[in-house]
Amino acid sequence: MLDVSRLRVLVAVARTGSVTAAAKELHYSQPSVSHHLARLEAETGAKLVQRAGRGIRLTEAGRTLAERGAEILGRLDAAEAELSAHVGLDQGRVRLAAFPSALGTFVPRAASLLAERHPGLRVSLTEAEPPEAVRMLRAGYVDVAVIFRYDPGTEEDDIRTRRLLDEPSHLVTAEAAEPDLAAYADAEWIAGCDRCRLHLLEMCERAGFSPRVSFTTDDFVAVQALVAAGLGVTALPALTLRAARNPDVHTVALPGSTRYVLAATYGEPPEPPATAALIDALIESTGTEPSPLVGG
């Protein structure tokens, strides 16, 4: 049998990249981390770490065990959270991952609503873009993931979603904008995350041109600053402009361009009470009508 505490140490070393960082994250001493790793090697009969300069690195066996260990620990944490939830909404915890502009707009309101209604329920928030948030959801690190899609029909078999918000994209320029992408065919463009960049390319293709992307950044504050400096134009979803609006840019909604914001869960229904309460708070915070979960 593998010791869960030692497995948690190995996963922390894999995630942080060093004994020192793992010790800091776990609030252990460095010798204690090294001792746990040595004991885990003795338990498994496998060499899990090896010296690399002044530090260590995981062997192939160590990486394999760390990957599987992360999944195991995630499931154990999820089981603990669900068990706590069944004790009652006045105890336990619920965990949420959300992309930056959601965290900068409606998610704090949802967390506040939950705290008002269930003061004993602990809420943890983690920033993560949709692909990472879904991985965290499947691994059991979070109970709900706020994600987005540009295609409402895209579903994953094991993920169930509830639509929270439909938001338009906006053209963002340094001068007064017009809602015609073709008018900016010769402009320099600024792109965002991988999904947003792909959506931008698709929009421009429909408008009859391929954009000349000169800058790429996930930071929507930096994107607007680049636009304000006259270095290019971009398209941003409405939530990013609500979260942080640069006063020196002009925006106009782009017809036919919508981003769908969803609350995603993993596992068989019904949802644990704490998870259901969080989803209700998210729905209320966005001002949308409740809709059934899709998928799964």
Automatic annotation (TrEMBL):
Residues annotated as domain HTH lysR-type: 2-59
Keywords from the named record: DNA-binding, Transcription, Transcription regulation
InterPro entries: LysR_HTH_N (IPR000847), LysR_subst-bd (IPR005119), WH-like_DNA-bd_sf (IPR036388), WH_DNA-bd_sf (IPR036390)
Protein name: LysR family transcriptional regulator
SUPFAM superfamilies on file: Periplasmic binding protein-like II, Winged helix' DNA-binding domain
Pfam family, one: HTH_1
Species of the source: Actinoallomurus spadix
Keyword DNA-binding: yes
Family designation: Belongs to the LysR transcriptional regulatory family.
Recorded superkingdom: Bacteria
